[in-house]
Write a structure and sequence with these properties.
By secondary structure, the protein is of the alpha/beta class. The protein is built from five helices and five strands. Helix 1 runs parallel beside helix 5. The longest helix is centred in the C-terminal third of the chain and has 19 residues.
Length: about 150
């Protein structure tokens, strides 16, 4: 999760919502991603999507069954769907997203029994750090808008 936080800090420096993700296979990071939707005007460029695309390219397959995804913020509905489609094995989440989280906070897409792929989900890795970077970012953003 520390490596995912490094990715979140990259997003922060780009004035993007600071969310970072890494994908690990056999104990080795094979891809990284962070939010870039503002910079590239693409609403699909979430940290998880970028990391998934890079991992698939590196492994030359769309199936990431034996991979773990670490993400600093609970995935949204789009990302939760991509996690299922990519067949990610395990998902580690830093902090919940009470406004848009789709892995238990608002809805639980990964908990839907009818989907053909099940993802193991673990919450709370470095939760305080993952939460704080988001709070700091939005506090700074509000301060800039109020000037």
């Amino acid at each position: 999760m520390k490596e995912a936080l490094k990715e979140a800090k990259k997003a922060y420096k780009k004035d993007e919502t600071p969310v970072g993700a890494v994908i690990v296979k056999d104990g080795v990071i094979i891809s990284r991603g962070h939010n870039e939707k503002e910079m590239k005007n693409d609403p699909t460029l979430h940290a998880e999507i970028s990391a998934i695309k890079k991992a698939c390219k590196k492994l030359n397959t769309w199936r990431l069954n034996d991979c773990d995804l670490y993400v600093t913020l609970e995935p949204c509905a789009m990302c939760a769907g991509a996690i299922i489609q990519a067949r990610v094995g395990r998902l580690f989440i830093g902090t919940p997203d009470p406004k848009a989280g789709a892995v238990g906070s608002v809805v639980d897409i990964l908990g839907v029994e009818k989907f053909n792929h099940k993802v193991e989900v673990f919450y709370g890795l470095l939760m305080e750090e993952c939460s704080m970077i988001l709070k700091d970012f939005f506090k700074e953003l509000r301060q800039r808008k109020n000037k």
